[in-house]
Write a structure and sequence with these properties.
Length: 310
């Protein structure tokens, strides 16, 4: 059996991914909530970093498909730990790179094949300001922004154009959209130094049905994202930010992704997990995918994750 055939068999061996009492495939279930309809049960997902950045795209695809098979997730969030390519000189001495993550594209191709159209999968990208910090450091990026703001903006634009091209290729390979992580939404200068580039990436794949904004961190500004973005949904930590879905739903009619306390997931009792899920359903309504507000801890055990598997 070839590696390609093996990856396909991993997903197909999970069929039926329809657990007892379920009537729909994961894709059908998510499609219903996107339309504001009531599915057979609330779709759910969760994720953590597989730390596959030193492994091949084939291995990353295998890890992702096995995780999906084991936990029957309704939405497959493809983790993206491959680093953005560093220049040989200063970190901001960048050139447009049409394929910044070749191994990730390889993984996406195999994941599409393995899922066999039974589930939506989305590609994770970190917004350009976060990429800039990873290429240098928070201090170095902040220094360039303060001392040479146009040079900083130029670097972000190159990163954004490269990531936009990656996003187009990801959607062409079958992903349902981009899961864009925005870690600096509360910055006073977000509108100038980040928003144009974050929009550039999303707008490159605006026709994708399942673009999701991940508003990262405990200190966020959700007001920026309620209107005017080419995204179907928002994911954020209701427990870290203390902003319940009830508050968000008053201002936002799109898909909400979250509900569980990701930071304390391992410590929560079964009753607490059930209570959090119930609150999310009541407050978010039908347009909900239950999930953490971010990654659950990387050392979360299979038994701990299985507690919320429907």
């Amino acid at each position: 059996m070839t590696r390609r055939q093996l990856l396909r068999s991993i997903a197909l061996s999970a069929a039926p991914m329809l657990l007892k009492g379920a009537e729909l495939t994961p894709r059908q279930r998510v499609n219903k909530v996107l339309r504001g309809q009531t599915p057979d049960r609330t779709p759910y997902s969760f994720w953590y970093h597989f730390l596959d950045e030193s492994r091949s795209g084939d291995d990353h695809a295998k890890t992702t498909l096995e995780f999906h098979k084991k936990f029957h997730t309704d939405l497959v969030k493809v983790m993206s730990d491959y680093p953005y390519p560093k220049p040989s000189g200063d970190w901001f001495d960048l050139k447009f790179t049409p394929t910044p993550f070749p191994q990730q594209l390889r993984a996406l191709s195999l994941i599409r094949e393995g899922l066999a159209d039974r589930a939506h999968f989305v590609e994770t990208l970190f917004n350009p300001s976060n990429v800039a910090e990873k290429l240098s450091s928070k201090e170095a990026a902040a220094q360039l922004k303060a001392e040479k703001p146009q040079r900083y903006l130029d670097a972000l634009e190159i990163i954004a154009k490269s990531q936009a091209e990656h996003a187009r290729k990801a959607v062409a390979l079958g992903t349902s959209g981009i899961f864009l992580s925005i870690a600096n939404s509360a910055d006073p200068d977000y509108q100038k130094f980040s928003e144009p580039f974050d929009r550039m990436i999303l707008d490159a794949v605006q026709s994708a049905p399942l673009n999701i904004l991940h508003i990262h961190g405990d200190h966020i500004d959700l007001n920026r994202f309620y209107k005017g973005w080419t995204a179907a949904g928002i994911n954020y930590s209701i427990h870290g930010t203390k902003i319940p879905f009830e508050t968000t739903r008053k201002n936002y009619s799109g898909l909400l992704v979250g509900g569980w306390d990701e930071a304390n997931f391992k410590k929560l009792s079964d009753a607490e997990l059930k209570s959090q899920a119930g609150a999310a359903k009541r407050e978010a309504g039908s347009k909900l995918i239950l999930a953490g507000g971010c990654s659950v801890p990387n050392d979360t055990t299979d038994a701990e994750l299985m507690r919320v598997v429907t």
